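@channel anyone free to eyeball this complex?
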Amino acid sequence: MPPAIETVDLVKEYGGLRALQELSLTVEEGEFFGLLGPNGAGKTTFINTLVGLVRKSGGEARVFGHDVEDDYREARDAIGLAPQEFNVDRFFPIREVLMHKAGYHGIPEDEAAERADEVLKRVGIYDKRNERFDWLSGGMKRRLLLARALVTDPDLLILDEPTAGVDVQLRHDLWELVTELNEEGTTVLLTTHYIEEAERLCDRVAIVNEGRKVTVATPDELKTRGTDTIAVRLESPVDGTAVADLEAALGTYAHEVSAAGDSLEVRVDDGGSTAPQLLNDLEARGHEIVDLEISRTSLEEIFVDLTRSEDRTVTRSSASSADEEASSMDEEGSSAEASEREQEGVA
Amino acid sequence: MLSVGFRSLFRREVLRFVRRPKNTFMPPAITNVLYFAVFGVILGGRIDEPVAGIGYILFLIPGLVVLGTISNAFENASFSIFHGRWNEYIHETLTSPLSYIEMVVAYVAASAVRGLIVGVIVAVIGALFVPLSIENGLFLVATMVVIAALFSGLGIVGGLVARDFDDLTVMNQFILRPLVFFGAVFYSLTMLDPLWQYVSLLNPMVYMVDSVRYGLLGYSDLLEVAPPAYAEFAPYASLGVLTLLTAAVVALDVYLFKIGYGLTD
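replying in thread with the prediction:
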């Protein structure tokens, strides 16, 4: 089977601005794949290229082997999209909205009605089926977007910030539901700002920044790329000269040494395997150790490090890739603007 | 062509205006009652001589039918597309596996249906003021379908080009209506000086109004005032040209959808 998503050197330019810069990604069938990146990283542009709302400027993009432009009908038929914005037909009750969407995908009316009922029950808003979209609460609107994505029974479910601005209960409900769908065989592409979400749900994540792929890895692999901090409490305080001596002595494995009173912090690659050596080295220099604690870098810290731009303080080598990157477009700003648009009149 | 997807979109589009008669059918009905009452009965009653041998109210009916049909076909298509763009729910269609031809034909057909329904409503209102019979039924139906589809197709272009709701108003009020009002709706071309008769022949609306008048009443201004070589078969030539024009506009719509003009980034 071809990959669920395969892009090769995908480029999208808006005038002089490159929103996607030779972005190559592969999402395997059945995978739960996360797309992480700061605002304006190109996540929504990437998704919209797959579903036909953005025309690519260069490169290739395929969904289950179907080119998104040459074989757009097959590609779009395979995708269920729950976008970030509330772009739902306001003229009809939500059950009919879902029936229409199913119909566009070639599902006959009777079956479309059954599916609409089924997905409304599944996302928990069946009792609102005869309401129009504008009358739903924010959480219900978010659920409806998911229902609309599911009503066509897609092989690839794309969720663009599905839990942005929703309460904890709904977030957990959505997590449970998409996990269930993934276990049933649906490939899921999730974009999110919530690192916890990606860590909890995704098999692999891609971190993108300013239209470029920074890295692709499992959440566990990513965490191993971070540094750990070993915090040591000493019997007696260390002065500046002692810290300088320690920096020189521990330089082979310590990235940074800092001290405040009797507390010493040493940043290393792998705290677990380095701690015994650090203890030995400290004792060899006459420091008596009272307590020791190792803290691992969170995925969030790694994410921040990987997507840090050159105009900020750069402390890690990985940030160098960001030096080449162009300025980003503000997708979030335009989305917010769009969501504020109001319906006007009926002609 | 008549796939499930196409039928779903067509149905959605038709339901949108059918379920809102207060917004879609009542206004043209009321407007045309006023037209017939004011122009037909009050003013027309003072016109002693029949226009082109036809009573004035009867003469008015075809023009007002065309006015109602094309205005509503255009308005429906342009509004449907633009409102969908404005609120972004047109993405429901654009992200579906419908072909671009299916999308366009569904939008055009649904808007044409609205235009035709309004045309029938206007004719029925006219018939309340004066006895009405149809002279060339088949020709009338063919002409009405073609002009309704033509303006639906133009409405799609309008909906794609518009940047705000004011643009739609401008298109309707400043382009469409003047052309229709100078399109021999309220007068016969035979009432004009020869110079203005020829100038009027540059207005495409003249051919639409004239063709519908020919289909409904059996009378054509063009048979009287067009150059002899054309006048002989004027109504049929008009229908032929309008059909070609409609095909060209629909093809343009499909092309615009294909390149995503006004629809995609």
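from a first look: The longest helix of chain B spans residues 56-86.
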